[in-house]
């Protein structure tokens, strides 16, 4: 096979993505994507002094996961982040001045590409999910993750869709657990974030006295290198850590039919969390909500969420029933 021939056609790739029940790494699928040049220096030039929010956590590993509610946050340019991560003395002032590089990691995570590059829409076409069988899907439907060594996301599962992750710069280690391990991972909805179920276990340093069932888990560990794309199937748990000085990844969540049912469950969860939180002393409630959730929503708004989720679920049921009728007739 020639260098420029991809191992799978878009149709075959989509078939794999939509049916595979195990994580998989795609190689030699993105060699011609302009997004492969999206290293930190290039993005710094494109962003041209625009600030983005970084989440800062401690490199020391405790027995408790470092949830986003326990992290610090700063706004900085990519240039300032690069200077800090290279250990430049110029960082004695500026947004990272209070955070010693040897003790902290920084993560600009979950950044919607459509928002940070809204004034440069032509850049969306650098990402071509059409090669995976999703025509029309580009950077507009993707998110960007920029981290320093040690940056991590606590172990969690995503309620919706499956996940395609392109590694652009540096390497990331993924610890993946199958849906069948859910009860061994002690799931929790606090901190609450729509569509994320967190594990109470710090999987890199588990407290086996408190969480003895964690011993029964089966971790699938993969190190993702630049140019590779990881498929995270629906409801697989994952803990992700940056193992190089600078890491950059781009991901896109692919919607699945099963999401309609999940939306109903998520709408009910939102109602419960907001109802309980409103009964608490408001000043104590902050650790409940992940920073990605702006505020607890009102009962009326929560009912709207639930109604929309239920109606779209029934619509999807009707559509699949009529499809079955057509195919059987």
UniProtKB/TrEMBL annotation:
Subcellular location, principal: cytoplasm
InterPro entries: Cupin_8, HSPB1-associated_protein_1, JmjC_dom
Compartments where found: Cytoplasm
Keyword Cytoplasm attributed: yes
The keyword Transit peptide is assigned to this record: no
UniProt-listed SUPFAM superfamilies: Clavaminate synthase-like (SSF51197)
GO cellular component, one term: cytoplasm
Domain JmjC: 105-269
Gene3D superfamilies (alphabetical): Cupin
UniProt keyword annotations, A-Z: Cytoplasm
Function, in words: May play a role in cellular stress response.
Protein known as: HSPB1-associated protein 1
Organism: Nestor notabilis (Kea)
């Amino acid at each position: 096979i020639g260098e420029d021939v991809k191992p799978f056609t878009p149709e075959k790739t989509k078939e794999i993505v939509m049916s595979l029940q195990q994580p998989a790494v795609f190689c030699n699928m993105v060699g011609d994507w302009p997004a492969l040049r999206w290293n930190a220096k290039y993005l710094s030039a494109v962003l041209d002094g625009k600030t983005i929010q970084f989440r800062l956590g401690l490199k020391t590993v405790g027995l408790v996961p470092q949830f986003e509610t326990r992290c610090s946050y700063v706004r900085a340019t990519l240039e300032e982040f690069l200077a800090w991560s290279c250990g430049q003395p110029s960082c004695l002032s500026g947004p990272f001045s209070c955070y010693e590089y040897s003790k902290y990691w920084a993560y600009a995570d979950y950044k919607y590409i459509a928002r940070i590059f809204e004034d440069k829409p032509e850049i969306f076409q650098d990402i071509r999910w059409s090669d995976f069988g999703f025509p029309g899907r580009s950077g507009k439907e993707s998110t960007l993750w920029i981290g320093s060594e040690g940056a991590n996301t606590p172990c969690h599962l995503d309620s919706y869709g499956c996940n395609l992750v392109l590694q652009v710069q540096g390497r990331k280690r993924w610890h993946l657990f199958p849906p069948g391990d859910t009860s061994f991972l002690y799931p929790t909805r606090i901190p609450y974030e729509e569509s994320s179920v967190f594990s109470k276990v710090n999987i890199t340093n588990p407290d086996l006295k408190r969480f003895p069932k964690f011993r029964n888990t089966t971790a699938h560990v993969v190190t993702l290198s630049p140019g590779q794309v990881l498929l995270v199937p629906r409801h697989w748990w994952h803990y992700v850590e940056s193992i190089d000085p600078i890491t950059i990844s781009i991901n896109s969540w692919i919607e699945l039919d099963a999401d309609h049912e999940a939306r109903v469950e998520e709408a009910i969860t939102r109602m419960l969390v907001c109802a309980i939180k409103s009964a608490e002393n408001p000043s104590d409630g902050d650790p409940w909500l992940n920073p990605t959730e702006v505020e607890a929503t009102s009962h009326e708004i929560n009912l709207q969420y639930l109604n929309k989720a239920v109606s779209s679920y029934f619509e999807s049921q009707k559509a699949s029933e009529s499809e079955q009728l057509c195919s059987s007739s």
